[in-house]
From TrEMBL, chains A, B:
<keyword id="KW-0472">Membrane</keyword>
<comment type="similarity">
    <text>Belongs to the chloride channel (TC 2.A.49) family.</text>
</comment>
<dbReference type="InterPro" id="IPR000644">
    <property type="entry name" value="CBS_dom"/>
</dbReference>
<feature type="transmembrane region" description="Helical">
    <location>
        <begin position="185"/>
        <end position="209"/>
    </location>
</feature>
<dbReference type="GO" id="GO:0008021">
    <property type="term" value="C:synaptic vesicle"/>
</dbReference>
<feature type="domain" description="CBS">
    <location>
        <begin position="631"/>
        <end position="695"/>
    </location>
</feature>
<feature type="transmembrane region" description="Helical">
    <location>
        <begin position="230"/>
        <end position="254"/>
    </location>
</feature>
<feature type="transmembrane region" description="Helical">
    <location>
        <begin position="566"/>
        <end position="589"/>
    </location>
</feature>
<dbReference type="InterPro" id="IPR046342">
    <property type="entry name" value="CBS_dom_sf"/>
</dbReference>
<dbReference type="GO" id="GO:0005247">
    <property type="term" value="F:voltage-gated chloride channel activity"/>
</dbReference>
<keyword id="KW-0406">Ion transport</keyword>
<dbReference type="GO" id="GO:0010008">
    <property type="term" value="C:endosome membrane"/>
</dbReference>
<protein>
    <recommendedName>
        <fullName>Chloride channel protein</fullName>
    </recommendedName>
</protein>
<keyword id="KW-1133">Transmembrane helix</keyword>
<dbReference type="InterPro" id="IPR001807">
    <property type="entry name" value="ClC"/>
</dbReference>
<keyword id="KW-0812">Transmembrane</keyword>
<feature type="transmembrane region" description="Helical">
    <location>
        <begin position="364"/>
        <end position="385"/>
    </location>
</feature>
């Protein structure tokens, strides 16, 4: 059963794995709508009846849904197209203008994608911040303002936990002006009710309009960028629904973030604008260059970190990343960040709520607690990945998968009930992180900043370390509780059927742990100032906010196993090179600890969970297997199905095609010599045969040949032969059967191959598809789990 | 003449092209010394007598000098080695420790390289700054201090052009205490004399001890990292001599910088530490991972920009850059930067002299002058590249190449004579750039800062735009003169036989042009404040220093065609995200303008000039040629020299080997069928035959076979056959003759191949080497110069 890569029956399972089958008919409607919207294929169809399908489809769409693309052929197609365009430019003025448009299309698309991404991010930021606050109350005279803006308008900058005069909690709206048990309960009820309603709306919207809008999207983006086709995943409908439901999901207080989904939204923008230009729309490989840049823009607006975004795209998401893309990704990320800064969603001139700016020095000895945070972050990552995957597996195998709405509603209910009493879980995660990253100043009157300080010198920028008051102890208890709650809820939340990112919850968990460690260290330093060399200079020994930041980096590193991009993102969040060493130490240790227990981050885990055909180029395996072990047919299996170059009839070929499900058939000189001529693709073959029958009056007995020399007519009665050499790919990739499997994997991942033929002493022996490679790796991994090395 | 890739006669020309032949015997001595030092090959040898060579050489060195490496085989070799090490770790405790050492070697080497690079850079920075000042005078009581330090020690922070009391100009040392014509002339003479002496010493050292130490080294580093072998280029001797002569060359006042050479020094450190670990020392492909990281560290210390360094390595220098390298490069760059910060060579806590920190806003309309600077920068780049390449070509073809010392001395003399009268060319380029980047404050009493200002509000951080005084007009004239002088001298300087970087002169030229534009704009703004929206807010309309920075980026972009890395480096120099948009606009426009006139930057030009075998992965060509057009033998040439698998004798093979210069021979099943069995490499073949003759008593008539089945003895009298299957590479790369040449180029550059076989219908037709690919590209380029596209 060679060459059945991507055969429909195989990827049918995927439907379920993608977890969209449960949405029933809606999915296909959506798919068809998106098909016609994004890919221009006008015929809607189901994948089951493939032969009929291929016959009836238009020729414009090169790949079927859930198929793998062939990078080398696509890039070659693009080169030929470009050559034609450049050659034609001398012919007419119109062609000249077109050639300039053609060459400038990349920059144009990138600019548009950047603009759109920045714009979407701005709206989402404003919406999420307003909706999060609406759970607690409303701005009476200007309901469209969130709590902070409402109080700003009133010049009430120092609003405390109760808000300012214009901001009414729900109990106040309903007349309970005093703070008593009744009003507390009323607020509590409103909080829980609104949370559940938002979550319900989010999941209903996703379910009804765009099933692909659920989750963080990063595992799917990685898979798609590696060369897989999932139609509609970046559709306009997905964009709209994901943007709306993201706001609802974040506002509902569920333990999730909007950073991952923002990358998905950015990629949707990328896909939509790529649709405007045939250069990108018709070429899946070129389109992925735009998507790479878009994902950089997504991270850029999510964290206000353009350089970090580019590195994220390079390190984590992209597969095929030519240097041209680096430059364009950077441009795209920068445009998006500039638009977002212009929108200024938080009114702070910063792109994220938790931007901090301090540069108090740190002591060399503090690397010890930072390393401990790194170890803890790594362990947290391992635990989180294991538990989350266990829960997702349970969800897939149990009845739970049939009730996604109920699951979300129940989770939102539990989250809201647990969250409200604790002030650190009640506020939105972004605001919590901002609180934890910040240093305590004289204007902060929260428990966490209850230090016994003498604030006479208000102009001072660095506040000396002081003794903690009772409020700090109280805050530490609440933070510890929040840590447990957040960590537990995130395990169950990542994977539910609403847009759900993982960055913010991971950062929150890490920041809580780090801040607790920071406060403890601070008190140690206060009691033993001689241990810290920075104490003597400024009186400021330990920056508790820095510990929160290091903890956040460690946890996020443990969960996602990002490295450079994570450090750069955190560094762009602080705007100073001072803390790059602590961050790096924490991230590197967290990664080492994590890698010792589980291979790969949470995204790799979810890719594996969903059986996506993702060939990880970062993975190496150390077996002695050869191409002969990877190829089909296996030893002892029936021979490879091949065509001979000059003695088959139309009927023979049609029979072979309908009897098998292979996507490609090798053509050989003769059955005996098995010398390779080329490869014929099923889709093109079926079309060519149909055309021959309709246009050239070919009959079942017509000879088909794949050679330069037409055979002579055997007799005047026999039908004239047809030549199909023009559909033969005469440059298929070949390796010998003695090629090490490592090298085969490298060729597949570096060149982005779809199929490769295996020869021995010049004769064709077998064929390797991307799926065979993935299957081989999977089989070896399950036998020897230690044999896989992540680099 | 197929397969003559890297044959000695071919690369003999290279000797001259590398411009080391003129150094005569010294080169070979050096080469041998470095050979034994770096590569462990104990036998010194000349390349001319290759056959004898190969017979007598030890087997440890896999490649010859000036040969191309085979990435795929090297990586496969490494994988096998790693597998053995990991497998053995269960055997004994020693093996276990070794396996940990083996796995940790990468991080260890990287850390050491970072430390060494930071240390070297610190020493070079201190040395260059002291030696630059010694031309002007001396610190009487502490001769080891430079002017700035000398005055600091005396608490004379505000030293002007005449220096402080402790700093004696040479005329003062010799008793001329008054400032008159006599002392001026005395100082002038000392300046010129010392400049010439330093330049003379630099060129003599390079000539006598390490010819490879000349130039910037970046074209060679690019070539070596792409998989070429130049023995001794990263040797210990090169490191020492380059470090010393770099200081001398910079101090001599020649129009050159130390930034490029610092990358070379970092790579030398990388090579030396890689030598300590067999994992890297014995594997050229793995060694290049270390060199990639080292080059990042080099840029990191050159500009104090660790992230920029990593991106430079990724964008400009590296060829094979797995993601693992990204992370390690970052670490290496960070370690180097930390060490340099600890050394603190300038006493300012910053890693470069021209670090600036300001963030006054810029207006949207200023993008117009920034774009103009971008255009000018691009044009400057084009002009510079053309003139410099013309001059280098002239040097190569004229008698000038025989007198490198004289050339350097004369150039130093002219430079010194022209430079002294103008204060902006008299000071070192770094200091000039620092002056131009900086904003004028109340403490600056130089001409350029002669504004009619009211400095009562000294506490203010932003100084309002003011009317220019007569000093500014004077300074502008001097700067214009300096611009012309610097630009002209750099054309003749880049390429001389001392360490000579291009970054600093380019930045200086750009900064001068930018500063002039900035001052002009400033005066326009002062007279029309309503045109600039930022004027109303702070009174500060135009930041002249920002224009200098933008101009510098534009010029450097035009000359080198760097993009992301350049923007990131400039951004790290300023420490703020505010100016990233102006910088990006200037760089992108400069690149567009430059690319419209010349393809590729100055480094690509020098690679081409020197005919280095560099296969640029950024380059694409749009021809319809096929693999059949690239391969040897050409149509009509004699057939490919092949071995048959079972009917040749030892004598046959030895004759074929000695008659040809090919590096590899394909093995086929039979002359008739030409079905491919594998590839035999000359080096291994010669060794195997020698071993067979010596150990297994093979005689000339012995049959040699390359099969699994040994043939039967034809008769008892005939000698027993020998089987050499074990030296056959049974997994050579193959493409069909119909494969587009584009795809062939892509395979070669992405996989790092050395040779690839060409088949047609299963029979062997020809062979393609990296040199054939380069030759094909070169041939097409010379016929259709427009056909090459840089991306």
């Amino acid at each position: 059963m060679e060459l059945d890569e991507d055969s429909p029956s195989d990827w049918d399972e995927d439907d379920e794995l993608l977890d969209v089958s449960s949405f029933g008919v809606a999915k296909w409607q959506r798919n068809e709508r998106n098909d016609s919207r994004n890919d221009g294929s006008s015929t809607s169809r189901r994948r089951r009846d493939v032969f009929h399908d291929i016959l009836s489809m238009d020729s414009s769409s090169q790949y079927d849904d859930f198929h793998t693309i062939d990078w080398v052929r696509d890039i070659q197609k693009y080169r030929n197209q470009r050559k034609d365009v450049l050659k034609a430019k001398k012919d007419s003025r119109k062609a000249l203008i077109y050639s300039y448009l053609y060459r400038g299309a990349g920059w144009l698309v990138i600019s548009l994608v950047g603009l759109a991404t920045g714009f979407c991010a701005g709206i989402i930021d404003i919406g999420a911040s307003w909706m999060s606050d609406i759970k607690l109350g409303i701005c009476v005279n200007a309901f469209w303002l969130n709590q902070e803006e409402c109080c700003w308008v009133q010049n009430n900058t120092a609003f405390g936990e109760e808000g300012c005069s214009e901001w009414y909690t729900w109990s106040e709206v309903f007349g309970h002006s005093t703070i008593d048990a009744g009003s507390y309960i009323l607020n509590y009820i409103f909080f829980v009710m609104l949370s559940v309603i938002m979550a319900f709306l989010a999941v209903i919207f996703v379910r009804a309009f765009a099933p692909y809008a659920c989750g963080s999207g990063i595992p799917e983006i990685k898979t798609i960028l590696s060369g897989f086709i999932i139609r509609g995943y970046f559709g306009a409908w997905t964009l709209v629904i994901k943007s709306i439901t993201m706001v609802l999901a974040v506002a509902s207080g569920l333990s999730l973030g909007k950073e991952g989904p923002l990358v998905h939204v950015a990629c949707c923008c990328g896909n939509l604008f790529a649709y405007l230009f045939p250069k990108y729309h018709q070429n899946e490989a070129k389109k992925r260059e735009i998507l790479s840049a878009a994902s950089a823009a997504g991270v850029s607006v999510a964290f206000g970190a353009p350089i970090g975004g580019v590195l994220f795209s390079l390190e984590e998401v992209s597969y095929y990343f030519p240097l041209k893309t680096l430059w364009r990704s950077f441009f795209c990320a920068l445009v998006a960040a500039s638009v977002l800064r212009w929108i200024n969603p938080f009114g702070t001139d910063h792109l994220v709520m938790f931007y901090v700016e301090y540069n108090t020095p740190w002591s060399f000895y503090e690397l010890v607690p930072f390393s401990v945070l790194g170890i803890l972050g790594g362990l947290y990552g391992v635990l989180f990945i294991k538990l989350n995957l266990w829960w997702c597996n349970y969800r897939k195998s149990s009845n739970l998968k049939r009730h996604p709405v109920l699951e979300v509603v129940v989770l939102a209910l539990i989250t809201a009930i647990i969250s409200y009493p604790n002030p650190y879980t009640r506020q939105s995660s972004s605001r919590l992180i901002a609180t934890l990253f910040k240093e305590c100043g004289p204007e902060d009157d929260i428990d966490l900043c209850d230090y016994k300080r003498n604030f006479t010198r208000v102009d001072q920028s660095i506040y000396p370390t002081a003794e903690a008051g009772p409020g700090v102890t109280n805050a530490l208890w609440q933070l510890s509780l929040a840590l447990v709650v957040k960590a537990a809820l995130t395990v169950f939340t990542f994977g539910i059927k609403v847009p759900a990112g993982l960055f913010i919850p991971s950062i929150a968990v890490g920041a809580i742990a780090g801040r607790i460690a920071g406060v403890v260290m601070e008190q140690v330093a206060f009691n033993n100032p001689s241990w810290f060399d920075s104490c003597s200079a400024t009186g400021k020994c330990v920056t508790a906010g820095l510990y929160a930041m290091v903890g956040a980096a460690a946890c996020l590193g443990g969960v996602t196993r990002m490295t450079v991009s994570l450090v750069v993102i955190m560094f762009e969040l602080t705007g100073g090179l001072v803390y790059i060493v602590p961050l790096m130490v924490a991230v590197v240790i967290s990664k080492w600890v994590g890698d010792a227990f589980t291979k790969g981050g949470i995204y790799d885990g979810h890719i594996e969970l969903n059986d996506y055909p993702y060939l990880d180029s970062k993975r190496e395996f150390i077996h002695n297997t050869l191409a002969a072990d990877v190829m089909r047919p296996r030893r002892g299996s029936p021979e490879l199905t091949t065509f001979t170059q000059d003695n088959m009839t139309v009927e023979d070929i049609e029979m072979l095609v309908s009897e098998t499900t292979f996507n490609a058939f090798p053509v050989v000189v003769s059955k005996e010599s098995k010398r390779l001529v080329g490869l014929v693709y099923r889709k093109e073959l079926v079309q060519a045969l149909k055309k021959s029958r309709n246009k050239y009056n070919a009959v079942s007995q017509s000879k088909v040949c794949f050679t330069n020399e037409m055979p002579l007519h055997p007799s005047p009665d026999s039908p004239s032969p047809i030549n199909l050499l023009y559909i033969v790919d005469q440059s298929p990739f070949q390796v010998t059967d003695q090629t090490p499997a490592n090298t085969v994997v490298e060729i597949f991942s570096k060149l982005g191959l779809r199929t490769c033929l295996v020869t021995q002493n010049g004769t064709l022996h077998g064929i390797i598809t991307k799926k065979d490679v993935l299957g081989h790796i999977g089989a070896l991994e399950s036998i020897h789990p230690e044999s896989m090395l992540f680099q």
